[in-house]
Amino acid sequence: MAEIAASDADVVALLTRQHGDIRNLFDEVERTSGDERRDAFRRLVRLLAVHETAEEEVVRPFTRSNVPGGEQVVEDRLDEEREAKEVLSRLDGMDTDDPKFLTELLALRLDVMAHARAEERYEFIRIRRHADKDRLASMASALKAAEAMAPTHPHPGTESAAKNIALGPLAAVVDRTRDAVRKALGKDG
Amino acid sequence: MGFNPLEHQGIPLDRQLRSWRELDVEPVDPDRSDPYTRCRVITMNGIEVEAILFSHQFARRCPDPEVKRQLAEVRYVEHQQQKAVNWLLPGLASVLETTIAYEQVAVDLTGWVARHEPDPYLKQAYEFGVLEDFDHLYRYANLYEMIEHRKAESIVDGLTEVMPGRPTKFHHRHPHDNVREPYDRSTTNPLSKLHALTIMSAEQQTMNFYMNVGPQYMEPIARQLYQEIGLIEEEHVTHYESLVDPGETWWEQLVNHEYNECYLYHSFMEQESDPKVKAVWELHLNMELEHLRIACDLMRRHDGREPEEILAPELPNVLTFEQNKAFVRDLLDTQMDLTTLGTGYVRDAHERFEEMQERIHGGEEPPSERVLAQHHEMFGREYRMETEGEHPDPALRERG
């Protein structure tokens, strides 16, 4: 197996790091307030949407068709995602300075973390076992195409394409992510 | 007047057994709990594991079936205590996160003990060890950022700095140079016995943890780093266990173990910030008081001696998890280039050390160096958290 430094070509390494990025954004939302918190929370919501969309498009199909018992593994992950999405929808309409916001955010953080750890322990290790190097790499480039849709850091003053998309409505972000992933998969897969 | 565990009554042994429901403790929050709560959990797990392993060894050497049964009964409860304590750790934490917490324990527990150890030879042994665990923390923190894109400060929370200590590659010494001289059980301060047992137990648990979790990683550099640091933990256990007087009888050792558990549960109960965890420390203290009473009875019966002869008249000041930054920085300034020779310490890379280094490294960089090189390749920098200014050693300040 390749060393970590070269593991940009490994979808599992990328997804695991993205889990870290998501947790970092939770931290940022918690320790900021006002506009800063609103901005950090928008980035968190978008990263979650992009991450989950990319997993749906890239990872889940592979698990379903290549991992023994993959259907059930995917079902379990979808159940966790549903729970997290319910909390997220409650949060999404809420003012980030609402006194109840942090309590709900805490619940979301734990749901998202539980889902992420379950992926790492019960799904990703099987992907590494059943995907060859090329497959890990092609899935990785699809994921990177998706990643471009969700900036983790604010880009003040720069009007990049990614920023425009990230500032658009969530459904549009999901659509654009899906398109980008499918295009990348078609090209590399 | 301080707390004298010999004068307090605990929970009768036949009422200490817990049901599944009582063992089903709620874990602490992986991100938002007090880092020192997690440190106390990790420490007490190591203490309970040592109590259990010691009791098993004792039972194997014990011809008296009645004593064996008595040991078994207490040991079963200790196993339950270990489950209740270690299960406070959250399943949401990754192995590396728990590893970083283990190294925080090693730095701040050993640091505190070094600061309070009355015997200068023993103090030096702890000071020597601190700088090595401190460097392990730094290596694992860099690995953590590579694998999980998270910074170790989210775990240690600014309480413990993260920067180079004595470089890990220099920890590989000839095994003969890891054996220290023991204290004298008849003349040493009773506090020194507690310190030695505590640090030995903590390092032993770290050794056991790394030897078991290391192969769970898939990334080659992670697997290799756990191998390297795992071997150093063996050296640390050898180093600390050799401080204990081997002339202590089994009964005496049993009493020391139980007394130390009382001391630590009492200490942690006094300082615990999490009320649910505090309740566990309090319950376990009340169990340990009874274990101590039983151990004292066994000692009187089989050793013909009074436990008071070997114990302090009251518990020493509570052992505290707190910042040791200034202390560690002072060591970084003065003890970086130390190694061991025989039972002492020297500043020269002597022949036996050099030969060991050549053989184990085989002319290549060890994993502890390669992890930093790979991190640098990924991020263009290394991971450090220097909250009190730049590194005291100019040679170890970050380049660029």
From TrEMBL, chain A:
Q: Return the Gene3D superfamilies for the record.
A: nmb1532 protein domain like (1.20.120.520)
Q: Which residues cross the membrane?
A: none
Query: Taking every annotated instance into account, which residue ranges of this chain make up the domain Hemerythrin-like?
Result: 11-121
- Coiled coil residues, start to end: none
Q: Which PANTHER family match?
A: HHE DOMAIN PROTEIN (AFU_ORTHOLOGUE AFUA_4G00730)
Recorded protein name is Hemerythrin
Please report the organism this UniProt entry assigns to the protein: Streptomyces djakartensis
TrEMBL record, chain B:
Q: Which SUPFAM superfamilies match?
A: Ferritin-like
Region (Disordered), start-end ranges? 166-188
| InterPro entries per record | Ferritin-like_SF
* UniProt-recorded name of the protein: Ferritin-like domain-containing protein
Ranked from the top, the taxonomy reads: Bacteria, Bacillati, Actinomycetota, Actinomycetes, Kitasatosporales
